[in-house]
Amino acid sequence: MSNRRRTISAILVAIGAIVYGVSPIDVIPELLVGPLGFGDDIAVVLGAAFGVWKLLSGRGPRNGGVAPPPAG
Predict the structure, then answer these.
(1) Contact 26/40 with Cβ under 8 angstroms?
(2) pTM, whole model, 2 decimals?
C-alpha cells in the first residue's frame, strides 16, 4: 500500500471513530446504563488508535510486522 493510501486510510479510520464517539446512536447507550455506556466508545477509540498506528507505522499482517525496505 502506498504512503498516500495509508495516510488517507488512517484519516478515514480516525474520522469514523470520532463520528461514532459523538453519535447519539451507540451499541451501549449512555442514557440507559450511565457511565458504563462509555465502554464501547472507549473501545472504538482505542481500536481506531491502534489501527491508525499500524497503518502509519507501515507494519501490517501481510508483511509479518516488518517495515518494508525504503524505496529507491
Answers:
(1) yes
(2) 0.69
- Which position has the grid cell 474520522? 15
Which residues in the chain show pLDDT less than 70?
1, 59-69, 72
pLDDT score at 51:
95
DSSP class per residue in 5-69? HHHHHHHHHHHHHHHHHH-S--SS-HHHHGGGGHHHHHHHHHHHHHHHHHHHHT--GGGTTPPPP
Q: Grid coordinates representing 64?
A: 509479518
Give Cβ neighbours of residue 3 (< 8 Å, ≥ 6 apart). Answer: none
Q: Is 55 exposed, middle or buried (0-12, 13-18, 19+ CB in 10 A)?
A: buried
